Input
Amino acid sequence: METKVNARWKRSVRVAGSRTALAAATFAVVMLTLASTASARLELPALSPAAQVMQRVGLTDITVTYSSPAVRGRVIWGKLVPFGKNWRTGANAATTIRFSRDVKVGGKSVKAGTYSIFTIPAQNGMWTVVLNSNTKTWGNRGYKRSDDVARVKLKTEAIAHRERMTFIFADTTDDGTTLALEWEKVRLPIKISVDTKAQALANIKKTLSSSWRPYFMASRYFMSIGDMVRAEKKAKKSMMIKETWGNQWLMAQILAKKGDKTGALAYAKKALAGGGTDAAFVGFYRAQIKNAVAKWSK
Output
């Protein structure tokens, strides 16, 4: 009897021990999970926080994206940033500059696009600013001089102490701006110019070249409701701006509805000759106009 009791007691101890071990293991897993979650949610200030600055110059948007390191009591020029060597112009990933249109940087032509910015500081004399087509560099890793799109020599200026490296746009007009790099006691002004007048004229020309369309659409509407007087007036205004096979064919239809087959035939022939390879003309209207020409020629 005593042996059976001892056996039951030993089994109970083993079960209790197993349950205790399981509970301890579960507790440990829960605590590790909580610690991991707390660690993942921990947000602290970056040593070189992300920054971005944008400026519209006339019709051109210029955007600089970078990380902003601090001096923190260090010797910057010649030590942290060596003289005579490529510097990423910031920290962490590549500092980039994006131009929405073609520009000139320090007098050098640069196409619209996004570029990485490198700087070569000089102990004495001019610094070099480099625009490179590879925007995926980290430090100098991945940099190739063959990817450079522009190199300009620039003078620096002395300024009051600036703790964090910063890009600033200044002296902005419709035709240009100065992008200034400032850090420690150095300012590096980079002149950027744009041809806003040429861009504006191109926009005007493009807009006016298609301004025949509203009159064309108005004319087509008036024709659809049987108002041929207004339809003809709007069609004429459309053709005064720019004659196309579309408004020529429209005028032909209007004149035909007014009983002027001679005039209609003349405009239909013009439309047939001017349609060329236009998809709408080839796919649908060419056959329609040919039939009209054959009909009105009788």
User: Anything to note?
Assistant: The helical segments are 2-40, 196-209, 212-224, 228-241, 245-257, 261-274, 279-296.
